[in-house]
Structures are given as structure tokens and as C-alpha cells.
Amino acid sequence: MKILVTGAAGMLAADVIPELIKQGHEVIQTDINRRLPDIEAMDVTDTDEVIKRINEAHPDYVFHLAAETNVDLCEENPDHAYKVNMMGTENMVKACKKAGAGLLYISTGGVFDGKKDTPYIEFDETGPVSVYGKSKLRGEEVVRKELEKYFIIRAGWMVGGWQLDKKFVYKIVQQLKKGKRYLIAVSDKFGSPTFTKDFAANLMSVINAGKYGIYHMANKGTCSRYDMAVKIVEFMGLADEAKVEPVDSSRFPLPAPRARSEMIENRNLELLGINDMPRWEDSLGEYIIKNKDK
What we know:
This protein has helices spanning 13-22, 47-57, 71-76, 78-99, 131-146, 168-177, 196-209, 225-235, 267-272, 280-291, and strands at 2-6, 26-31, 40-41, 61-64, 102-108, 150-155, 157-159, 182-186, 190-191, 193-195, 213-216, 223-224, 243-247, 261-262. By secondary structure, it is of the alpha/beta class. The chain has a 7-stranded parallel sheet, sandwiched between helices. The protein has a 3-stranded mixed sheet with strand order 12-9-14. α2 runs parallel beside α4 (78-99) and α6 packs across α8 (225-235). The mean pLDDT is 97.
């Protein structure tokens, strides 16, 4: 299969692209950021450029990974958020229709309002509270409205990339390596960790199932940032030395509102019998063991 990937310089693509190549697919890598020599320049917000490039490549699928995922930046600059996440997706939709290609659109558990006590499933009503979530939902809507051959896959709290992304897990590990033994972590917000390695390994099983629509694909289980921090300390072998204090999210005022819950459940994968995502604790342990000495 020939697959054109947008956002090829990002943390998710860093695991998705090698997995696709390993499985024997022909991959065309594109991004506005040419971080690696195999990446071809393409700005997803440039309509003419996107249509021309995809029409020339004539892929079987476009995997649209490019997005503005900085939640606070989106809140502070809504025009930028909608330009990338909505208009960029509109361009992909137009190009796919013209080239006869299928589209995979990566979305987020942030499209929900966070009021539900149990994990959200694909059939729940959406209601994002942040500009980021709203812009990603608008991208979903244009895909659903305009295309027949599409997969929308919502991920949870993305974990991957280590130095490339430097998110929560990376930061906690670095603090512990520098000798910090007292940590604080938010305990009143909940989500579903989604490890990019596991996401990449299970992605083609969804595509190959051939049933178009919306899917959730997160690691099994849910947690707070506090729960993750406690496990990180454990996997670093410091459970007897380091203490993690649970705190309210008001301790960390941020520009963008965060829903109380971004927990998601892979209900459609379960229905198809292909929910092979591991538990988040298992993947967290592997992730730390593999990367902690880098």
C-alpha cells in the first residue's frame, strides 16, 4: 500500500512510519518541518500545494498526523488552531477526494466535555471545552461530511518520542535523575495514556479491517497524572526514596481549560475483536526502561 504521511517530523510519526515500512508499505513522508532527510516539504494549510502533491503521489491512503497539539497555544491563538487543525484537514479531504485516496485522521479524547464519570466511547456526544478540542472536532466533522473512505482515530494522552517531545513522563524522569525526591502531580484530571509505539503497532489492524468510521485507540486503563507519577517513581526503582504529592489542578493555572476527564474506551476495537492495546502501566514500564539512560 502507498501511504502519504503528514506530520512526519512529529512524535507519533516517529513510531508510525518505521512500523509502516516494516510492514512493507511504501511511505511518502511530508511535513512543514524537514527534520529528517527523507521528509518532503508540505504545508497542510496551503490548499494548492496539498492538492498538487497528493494528486502527484496518488497514494492509497493519506495518514493525516499533522496538527497543532499545543493546547495552550491553541487557546491563545485560535486562528492558528483552526487554520492548522480544521482548514488543514479540509485541504486533506479535498485532495483525497480528487486523488481517490482514503484518509486517516488522528483526533483526540479532548473532543468531549469531561463530565462523564466513566470512559467515553465512540457513540457518546461530543462537547469540547478548549479551542484545541473544538478545532479537532471541526476537522472530524469535515471528514465525516465529505468522505466515504475514512478512519477517524481518537487517541488519549500521547506518550512517546522521549527527547523529541519532552512531555510529562520525560520531565518526571529527568527530575528524578537529577536527584529530586519530592514531586507534585495533578490528581483531579483523568485520561487514557496512549503510547505511540502501541498506537503504531495496532494502527494497520484498524485500516485492514476495512470498516470506516470513528475509533478510539488508547492503552487499556485510565489514570491521573498523579497515578502516572507514582508508577514512574516505581519503575525508576525509587519507591522507597521519592514521594509524590497529589495536588489540585488549580496549582498549575494554564491558558486553556482542561476537561476533568479525557478518559476513552476502545469500544469499536472491542466489537471488532482487535483491541490489542496493552495496559498503560505495562507500556509505561517498558518505555522508561528503554529510555531512562538517554
